[in-house]
Amino acid sequence: MSRQIGEVILDLKNVSLSFGGVKALTDISFDVREHEIRAIIGPNGAGKSSMLNVINGVYRPQQGEIVLRGQHFSKMNPYKAAKAGISRTFQNIALFKGMNVIDNLMTGRNLKIRSNLIQQAFWWGPARREELAHRAKVEEVIDFLEIQHIRKTPVGRLPYGLQKRVDLGRALAMEPSILLLDEPMAGMNVEEKQDMCRFILDVNDQFGTTIVLIEHDMAVVMDISDRVVVLDYGKKIGDGAPDAVRANPEVISAYLGASH
Amino acid sequence: MAESASPQALDTFPRLLIHHAQVRGGKTAMREKDLGIWQSWTWTAVADEVRALACGLAEMGFQRGENLAIVGDNRPRMYMMMTAVQCLGGVPLPLYQDAVANEMLFVLLDAEVRFVFVEDQEQVDKVLEIQAQLPQLEHVLYDDPRGMRHYTLPFIHDIRELMAMGRIHNRNHPDLLTGEVAAGSADDVSVMLYTSGTTGKPKGVRLTHHAFISAARGGAEFDHLSADEDILSYLPMAWVGDHLFSFAQAMVTGFTINCPESAETVMTDLREIGPTYYFAPPRVFENLLTQVMIRMEDASLIKQKMFHAFMAVARRSGAEILDGQRVPLADRLLYVLGNLLVYGPLKNVLGMSRIRVAYTAGAAIGPDLFRFYRSIGINLKQLYGQTETCAYVCLQPDGEIKFDSVGKPAPGVEVKIADNGEILVKGPMLLKEYYKRPDATAEAINAEGYFMTGDAGLFDDDGHLKIIDRAKDVGKLANGAMYAPNYLENKLKFFPYIKEAVVFGDRREMVCAFINIDIGAVGNWAERRGIAYSGYTDLAAKSEVHALIQESIEQVNGELVGEGALADSQIHRFLILHKELDPDDDELTRTRKVRRNFVAEKYAVLIDALYSGRSSQFIETAVKFEDGRQGKVAADLAIRDVKTFGIAGRAA
């Protein structure tokens, strides 16, 4: 492998999040290093999605802070996160169902568009040149994910597995430095899962993108991630390399079940 | 490269390429869709890249007469590589890109291949998988660098490296290639194509420049092809038809070949290119029609009514109008209106608006299907040929189209029927030899120089050739009546719900059949009736589906009663197989022809059940998935009796 795992790029310090009386996350700290694949696992309701939502600013934790490339954020918000190069996919696909694949991917380029509304409306001069450049970028993503045949198909008409791939494509179109994947393989069959694994590894390898992913399929997690953090009832109960985590007795009893 | 432009000198493909670069250098020779945009190469650019490729090969030590394997989808550089190899007097050897590594092994060993040019990482992996068994293999070249970053083995090269090397070589030895091209002769082997192997191990068919150029010229004159044609090159490069249409004819006439973006985008690319000249096997036409019909059923009521009303007009007189026959004025006017409202838009959706000539071959085409395309004004014709004859024996002339014949002998071809019904052909397009198989060559070409096609056929009163079956497949039932299995299977396959059929009956009391349903068509049929199913095996086991298929078979029996000698071939019993026949399980050839004997052996227990009168049979079958894993499919198959019809003038 040519990729080299670098310095800590994202550091979460003592994050706590509660909704009214429900404690979703309690005093959680972990870090993510540049170019690594970092998995978050845990049983249902462990707080995995909440964790991702804290990272990209959808939820504001009551305590703790996020350090992104040395910059401290006590209040992250989705716009800031996106500006800082964090993009994500969603557990229940959040695409524009009536729009085709190209248009959905183009929305991923939104933050990078410089021309104003009026220029875009008339598709004139710089706006036109800019859109062509963005479209070229989107075509690269389409080529990368091998979805040329559905370029012009409305997303709502696609099978679930392909929608997931388009969702990933939209996140990639942002050219993120950190990619958050919320259960990218949920509900997929074996073949689709293998494809998705391949794409995740390729993204990591070819673009050096740092990846934080939530996944239920233990085989997948243990296979592709560099380090794993384990949550249970909003608390961190394990952190480390896949083998170490697998051997951790607390993790075994909480998540894998006693029989493993 | 000084070449005279006289036609006599244009007797090898490299010379033809140089000729086109001189007379139409600025015209587009090839297109390929990449990153959503059609990229083009002019004839000059093609000649330039071919020169770089050839010089690069020379630099790497490629020898005259050597074979170079080409494995991949249709890509401009793959076609260019063919000519580059031919420039050096070598023989390009295209392989089927979907063949698994072990299938490639036989051919690569047989042809003693030192150089392999593959499309992408997937194919490189396949070659690496069998590399240990290929002592001769020295170089693996690849076209698409994607995913190849970590392949550091010294014998794997990016094709761009080879071309850069070739350009330097060309600067240092500017006369080398000219000399090599001049040393080539029309009687040199220009390509080697392995037969798909319906019987035994594949054989390498060696065809000369003269053979392919004669076939291409004959076909081009027959259909008045010009340098302005556009063709979509999407069929496997290893198949003789693609080599004739996308390579030889393009090289002879100078028209443009268009390579689709990927196998999945062919339909979109077809629409965007709008070819004027088109080739597809019957199943492609069938799939297109099925899609149209499925979408029409979902269309609004007005559209449906309009479609059916105008299709009735087209059925009545569309084909006749295309053939230039007399048609009542009212129909002619209705047809013009229909063209505006239905046929034109339909052709546009199919990507067939600009088609002047379309061909189909490789399997029998259903009369309804054939007539459908002709009736909406697409000049669809049939041809007949084999790998050994450059896919060039018979063609249907414009205006003389019969769905059950393959037309008249093509220009320069002599066809005669042997006493046993076998079709014999002679002409410039015949193979030179089978590679390393003088025994097979001697067996295939008789003392008078006729190639024995192995097909049984007959000429009708108008001199059109009609193919009945493979000569060796034509058998007899226990009562002595003629039995032509392919003929029966084709009749069954003409039904949209039946994808594949295998019939049995040779030396038996009665004819029975295995059926594969068409998951698309039957699935849609089931959905509309609210029949839930989980997949092929489940759908195939539904009794409603059995009833549907039974109806079709009874219709076939009804037709057979009226066909004299074949009346005894009515199908008595059938079952629907629990899995689709698949080339990966060796049940079909790569060109999707049924391997009858293999299937009979593999499913012997089912045949026994058919003939022993049982009403169901349990079976478990091993299957190979696309990624090479193994699995098992098991089912309890129902067997049904079909109504047969009494033969007139004979006691039942």
TrEMBL record, chain A:
Q: Know the name of this protein?
A: ABC transporter related
Q: Which organism is it from?
A: Accumulibacter regalis
Instruction: Enumerate the SMART domains for this protein.
Output: AAA (SM00382)
Q: Which UniProt keywords apply?
A: ATP-binding, Cell membrane, Membrane, Nucleotide-binding, Transport
Q: Tell me, what is one Gene Ontology molecular-function annotation carried by this entry?
A: ATP hydrolysis activity
The chain positions of domain ABC transporter read 10-258
Q: Which GO terms describe its cellular component?
A: plasma membrane
Q: Name one Pfam family in it.
A: ABC_tran
Asked if the Swiss-Prot or TrEMBL record annotates the protein with the keyword Coiled coil, the reply is no
**TM region(s), chain numbering:** none
